[in-house]
Design brief:
- The chain is of the alpha/beta class.
- The protein is built from nine helices and ten strands.
- It has a five-stranded mixed sheet, with helices on both faces.
- A hairpin with a 2-residue loop joins strand 2 and strand 3.
- The structure holds 5'-O-[(R)-(carboxyoxy)(hydroxy)phosphoryl]adenosine (KG4) and zinc ion (ZN).
Length: about 350
């Protein structure tokens, strides 16, 4: 079965072709227009999706060597995400499927991330435990079998990625801040500054607004590294130590809760997914610590960590293979939940 997948929930315009569960192409156009605003500007995102969508889909088909006539179905992200951005991909996919008289499948973006470790040559089995960490979500999910999800806990306030982006903004770094903090943290000392860890007792809920505020208070007390001194060793060292200390505190909580959940549920396969799963420290420590607890750890290749069409095409293919299709009447749903 040939499935085209379209993803436009935030600031990447992406399309992919999946054939019988194998990714044949995955074209991602990241919108650079937002970087100077320090975050995604929803209206600009929708307009950029409109400009890019046809070109990105054509490229995904060409790279896969697949014609429009060969497609069996079209999948698109239904939500969660920015309403106007979702509308572009969803309307495109519906019109495409309607015009070609093939099934259309609306996909939950969180399921896309959740199953993104199945897109590789070394997929996990079921049941598995997944830590989904992105710009909009932080959740621990126990998946007993395909599409049977149990949400163990999620964040009460900021998502982990959002905390990375907001702290980067405070430090005068560009958007998105996650990859920049990751790179600087490697050069810093994770123990130079001790930021608080919010474990919130024994449950599986998360909170990252406290650590963000702790960085803010630290900067008020100590002062922001002076941008005029950029490049000087003292400036670079201080900034790298802040990045490293912040990242370590976030990773401590993410890894700690995931390993505890795996032990409590006696799950042997642990996956991480979503934009923050690209974080090198999170990947290393999850491999080491969940590995020590007897778990096999699955981390997506980097192109499947941040938003991409392949994970949407793949879940579309899973649902199509299970005999499902969506109504052309389903709306773009900004706050769609994982069920
Ligand atoms: O999954 P994603 O592309 O979009 C959402 O669904 O939200 O995740 C984007 C988030 C951003 O907050 C970005 O800063 C973060 O993922 N991110 C990272 C890294 N790469 C991307 N965070 C930490 N370390 C990274 N290497
Ligand atoms: Zn995402």
């Amino acid at each position: 079965m040939f499935v085209l997948g379209v993803e436009t929930s935030c600031d990447e315009t992406s399309a992919s072709v999946v054939v019988d569960g194998e990714v044949k192409s995955n074209v991602i156009s990241s919108q650079l227009v937002h970087s100077k605003f320090g975050g995604v500007v929803p209206e600009l995102a929708s307009r950029a999706h409109l400009r890019l969508i046809i070109r990105v889909v054509d490229e995904a088909l060409a790279m896969a060597g697949v014609t429009k006539g060969e497609l069996d179905a079209v999948a698109a992200t239904q939500g969660p995400g920015l309403a106007g951005a979702l509308l572009v991909g969803l309307s495109f996919a519906k019109a495409f499927a309607f015009g070609r008289r093939i099934p259309f499948i609306g996909v939950n973006h969180l399921e896309g991330h959740l199953y993104s470790n199945l897109l590789t040559r070394n997929p996990h089995g079921f049941p598995f435990l997944s830590l989904v960490v992105s710009g909009g979500h932080t959740m621990l999910v126990h998946v007993e079998r395909p599409f049977h999800h149990r949400l163990l806990g999620q964040t009460r306030d900021d998502a982990a990625g959002e905390a990375f982006d907001k702290v980067a903004k405070m430090l005068g770094l560009a958007y998105p801040g996650g990859p920049i903090i990751d790179a600087r943290a490697k050069l810093g000392n994770p123990r130079a500054i001790d930021f608080p860890r919010a474990f919130l007792g024994e449950g599986y809920e998360f909170s990252f607004s406290g650590i963000k505020t702790a960085v803010l208070y630290y900067l008020r007390r100590r002062g922001l590294p002076d941008p005029a001194r950029e490049g000087e060793p003292a400036y670079e060292e201080h900034l790298n130590d802040i990045c490293s200390g912040f990242q370590e505190a976030v990773v401590d909580v993410l890894v700690g809760k995931t390993v505890t959940a795996a032990q409590e549920l006696r799950v042997r396969e642990v996956a991480i997914a979503g934009g923050v799963s690209a974080n090198s420290r999170l990947r290393d420590r999850m491999r080491a610590e969940a590995g020590k607890a007897g778990c096999r750890v699955f981390t997506p290749p980097l192109e499947y960590c941040t938003d991409n069409g392949a994970m949407i095409a793949y879940v579309g293919w899973m649902r199509l293979a299970a005999g499902e299709r969506s109504s052309f009447g389903i709306p773009a749903t900004a706050n769609l939940e994982l069920t």
